[in-house]
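Key idea: predict the complex, not the pieces.
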Amino acid sequence: MKRWLALLPALAILSSCGFRESTSRIDAGASLSGSPVRVTNGAGHSETNGKPGTVEKPGRSTGQTVGAEQASEWKTLELTEEMTHLGELVLVNRDRELWPEAVPGDIVDLGEREDLTSGYSLLDPSIELSEQVALRFGEMVEAASSDGVRHFRISSGYRSFDEQEELYEEKGDDYALPAGYSEHNLGLSLDIGSTQGPIDDSAEGSWLKKRAWDYGFVLRYPKDKSSVTGIQYEPWHFRYVGLPHSLIMKKKDFVLEEYLAYLKEKRTIVAEAKGTRYRITYVPVPATDGTAAEVPVNGDYTLSGDNAGGVIVTVSLKEAA
Ligand SMILES: [Zn+2]
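Result:
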């Protein structure tokens, strides 16, 4: 087991956002029934109970031929150590400092972007966020609105290292993380509130607990995962990881630490989400040598580091049957 995973349970349970909103009354675990994601390992064996460690045969060690029949041509892509620190799946916590280069280049000032912020309010007009994440959040808010849930408010988004350092000095070690160790420094996380009261007691909070994963967001610090995340329950803090990862995490009841450890162990899994089949491969990237992965010449794929020595290659295979 990696050192950071072994150490986490021993850590004090901290707050990551720098403030407390309310005590919790609703369980973080959302119902998994009807989840539109199905996960198998790379060799195509279905998992029966959705828990890690129950697959009878491990996924293939390279995974590079799995699903190849679905794509006409594959090319070799060089993976470098730098890539292990970049992307939507990078782990940022008290033991994993983010690379400043991991902050996406599309951070925008939400207060100046009415086109991005219709349907919800901002606690402060100076709140910043990745534009892509804001677009996904907007889609989610629109979907909630069609369910009659319409009182979302973003209370915090991207924070620069300087802002985080200031917060850390002001709040102290029990209520904030040092600069570079907070997900708010990454630009892919946000604190979501309700204008109707504490998020945990609101219709907005209830809706998010059921549906956020469908839009690529995950509740980053669930109540029953404090021993894994090292952070107390935060019903307001959501992290964007994208599809299909969010749906797999929901189905398997994984937080990011657990999901990345699972991918590292399995090396290759195949998952279906929203009608598309994905092959997800974890590739360890040696710091000195780099390595390579096979990706389709004409097809969709994404790369993300885990910020812990690996790159996750997610390839869209042909439409699920
Ligand atoms: Zn937060």
